[in-house]
Amino acid sequence: TTLGDVWVPNVNYYKMRLNGNPTQSDRPSDMYSANAVDALKSMGPALAVAINGIPILGPNDAGDISIDEAGLQLACGGHVTPPLALVNTSIFPPGAPPPTAPIYHYHKAPNCLEPFTQDYKGISRGSTPNEHGKLTGWAMDGFGIYTYQDHKGETPIVDECGGHFGSVEEGGEVVYHYHVRVFVPYTLACQGPALGKCKDVQGATNYCHYGCGAEVCVQPGTDEAKLRSYLSQWNDTWLDSYTMNDFSGVKTLSATLSFVFALAQLLRVLF
């Protein structure tokens, strides 16, 4: 208006199942896909919805380059889309999502939300950075999106889409889920599991994560029996068709035993 920008209500609708099937034969799929996972949305570029109902869009904005490559500084990981009249769509490469009407949305981790601030405020104030990251949203395929860390504060070992198999609660059941990160793709590059084929479902720019070196990525320390039990809801033998990273934790145990042995040898020499 002549008085400046005015906030107006805007409602978007989303429908998604909250028990995604990681064994679907069309995995991985485009990050924006809805029909293939029995989902509906009124905002085309949305790939997920945060726990506060605000849409999460892909890693790019106004074209097909990432937020960081474009030099955009996003407070809390989000911003308002510029008016459509100011967007030059002729520069968009083939396959780029169309621009949306002005609405606040996230591209990066919505790190002002309570699941993030809970981890930032300090251990003396009750933060739990040594626990599995908290739920921050849901992807259109029904899998949860969690904050940065895994159990014991460890780095999540994720596939090229940005997801992996593991428990989200200490001792809980194993599920496929995503983790946010500070670099591209920020949330997810495709609807996983990636199965080593993330690049096959990318558009003009490849936003894939570097992955774990295997087709299926499982967080180290995950109980294989629980993993297979989870997958048996859809396909008992699905896991046997793909390569997996070493998630047994044996390497960590071996390194610990080696250290203990070396320390014992040193003490024998000194005393």
Q: What would you note in describing this structure?
A:
The radius of gyration is 21 Å and the shape is globular. The model is unreliable at 251-261 (pLDDT under 50). The strands form 4 sheets. It has a 6-stranded mixed beta sheet with strand order 5-4-8-9-11-10. The protein has a two-stranded antiparallel sheet with strand order 1-3. A hairpin with a 4-residue loop joins strand 4 and strand 5 (55-57). It has helices spanning 114-120, 224-231, 250-270; strands at residues 14-15, 29-30, 40-41, 46-50, 55-57, 78-80, 104-106, 135-139, 144-146, 163-167, 174-179, 190-191. With 271 residues, the protein is α+β, with helices and mostly antiparallel strands. Helix content is 13%, strand content 15%. The longest helix is centred in the C-terminal third of the chain and has 21 residues, at 250-270.
What is the tally of beta strands? 12
Structural class: alpha+beta
| Strand order in space, largest sheet | 5-4-8-9-11-10
Can you tell me the overall shape? globular
Beta fraction:
15-25%
Average pLDDT reading = 86
Order of helices and strands: EEEEEEEHEEEEEHH
Helix segment count?
A: 3
User: Could you give the distance between the termini?
Assistant: 82 Å
What is the rounded Rg?
A: 21 Å
Q: Main sheet, how many strands, which sense, barrel? A: 6 strands, mixed
Please mark out the parts with pLDDT under 50 across 5 or more consecutive residues, or reply none. Answer: 251-261
What percent of residues adopt helix (DSSP H or I)? 10-25%
